[in-house]
Amino acid sequence: MMDPTIAAIATPLGAGGIGIIRMSGQDALSIADKVFKSKSKKVLQEQRSHTIHYGWIIDPDTEEVIDEVLMMLMKGPNTYTREDVIEINCHGGMIVIQKILQLLLKNGAQLAEPGEFTKRAFLNGRIDLSQAEAVIDIINAQTELSLQSSISQLGGTLSQKVKNLRQELLEMIAHIEASIDYPEYDMEELTYEMIQSKTEMLLDQVNDFIRTADTGRMIREGIQTVIIGKPNVGKSSLLNALLREQRAIVTDIPGTTRDVLEEYITIQGVPLKLMDTAGIRETADVVEQIGVEKSKEWMTKSDLVLVMMDASTKFTTEDHEIFKLIEGKRCLVLINKTDLPRKLDIKQVFAYVDKEQILELSVKEGEGMDQLENRLREMFFAGEINVKDDVFITNVRHKDALVKAKSSLETVLETIELEMPEDCLSIDLQSAYEYLGEITGETVGESIIHQIFSQFCLGK
Ligand SMILES: Nc1nc2c(ncn2[C@@H]2O[C@H](COP(=O)(O)OP(=O)(O)OP(=O)(O)O)[C@@H](O)[C@H]2O)c(=O)[nH]1
Ligand SMILES: [Mg+2]
What we know:
The chain is an alpha/beta fold. 45% of the residues lie in helices and 18% in strands. Bound molecules: guanosine-5'-triphosphate and magnesium ion.
């Protein structure tokens, strides 16, 4: 049985210059012919693929002219879904677009589910699952880097690497199986040492992948950056200055910020998820106390801590507490309010961090802000993030699959250590092979596929 022909609105709802309705399936052209009258009386089904036709959408039952349109005609298999595809470019009004869609549905199309066009591209073998996921990521990309990495994933860079790994596993499994099943054949013997070294090599590659996941997450979600410090040092002022808007409340009353504020910004191409927190101090105020606890909690979860200090006040036990909290975290110390007379003894800061980690600034005067931005860029960009050529694991599902494959490969190595029989090896090699297949979708269940595509928007 063939799949039904599906249709959906592909452009966002609301008024716009142009609206696009998309239709895919074996009846796409014949349905289009029912509702379309070309200026030169052309029959779409007889036209060449990848051509555009001018005319009107007319309800065949009532002869009502609904809109003046351009019809894009694409015959399978060289289309997004590999099926025949029609895209109707009409005027971008809510009512017009809806009316055309309704007309297609009345004439034999079915309303597409979210992501169904891309799902067909996957099921018809044009793209694999990781590429389909890249399509969602491109649509949802919040940062330039995230977009670049998704485009590269759509191009198949990740798929290719995973395929290579799986191919090597498959060859190994086949070799082991063959030597068990047909011992009489004179094959090159696969020794335990050979299996071991090959497995170690594959494990290394899997581990390399897993290691990119942290950077991948930062590319996708932004680098989690928390501003912490004593009350009143200027944390909220810094957030506002970086955002270039008055997002957080700033007053000269210590303890102004009670809750964690979260904002996404891109600084010189570096995506940051920036968090302003409540100033850390001992307090009897219950609300503030909760805020302080939250500050500490976020701090431990962050990729980068910006510790802010006030140059016009002395180093206190609270600062000492804060430096103890951030031990082992990637951090920058920002000494603010350099426009005021200095009371802070910088030597006390040297006790906790290196000189290179300290920046002096005045948020109020805008001094040192450029240096801060350059510094952030250097920290994350020192030529190391090259999303176009390198593969980064940006998807949690992919990371989970890799972690499972890793553990199977580790079991293989343990089995070799214990000198267990060869067929035991093959079981775990097999599961590593299958886990990796989850990334590209070769070994993934219906429900996961359904779940992935349900995250799509309509018409994609
Ligand atoms: N002189 C001077 N004042 C500043 C500077 N940066 C911030 N301030 C002032 O310091 C006071 C506190 O600023 P906030 O940004 O609210 O400080 P905070 O660290 O968020 O304070 P809490 O939310 O209470 O923890 C405000 O009056 C700011 O205008 C600076 O560079 N120089
Ligand atoms: Mg504040």
